[in-house]
Amino acid sequence: DKITPGMSLDAAKKAGFPVFAYGNFITVLINFLIVAFCIFLVVKAINKLKRPSPSAAPVAKDCPACAMSIPIKATRCPHCTSDLGSVRA
Q1: CA 32, CA 40: separation in Å to the nearest integer?
Q2: What is the pLDDT at residue 7?
Q3: 41 Rama class: left (phi>0) / alpha (psi -120 to 50) / beta
């Protein structure tokens, strides 16, 4: 038996010839890579949504004398007028 150039894959298998279906292998490989890439993108997006947002720097502090909230850069409390220059809160 001779393999003719136009012989199909099924006919070659039925004739008992060793067949390596490289086209099927390439198709399966490409499909796997596409699915793996899609799953990677989904997991990456979910992880980005779950990541906690970076905490902002504090903009206010409490006055140690009257416990009122004042701006972080204040050197004197506007409520009780105590000096905050030497006091760290």
Answers
A1: 12
A2: 73
A3: alpha
My answer on whether 46 and 63 are in the same domain is: no
Closest CA to 62 of 82, 35, 41: 82
25 in any annotated domain: yes
- Structure confidence at residue 86 (pLDDT): 56
The DSSP call for residue 4 is -
**Domain that includes residue 73, residue range:** 55-89
pLDDT (0 to 100) of residue 23: 87
**Phi, psi (deg, nearest 5) at residue 67:** 65, 25
| Whole-number Å distance between alpha carbons of 89 and 24 | 70
Residue 89 has pLDDT above 50, yes or no: no
d(C-alpha 82, C-alpha 70), whole Å: 12
Contact between 49 and 43 (Cβ < 8 Å)? no
Is 1 within the bounds of a domain?
no
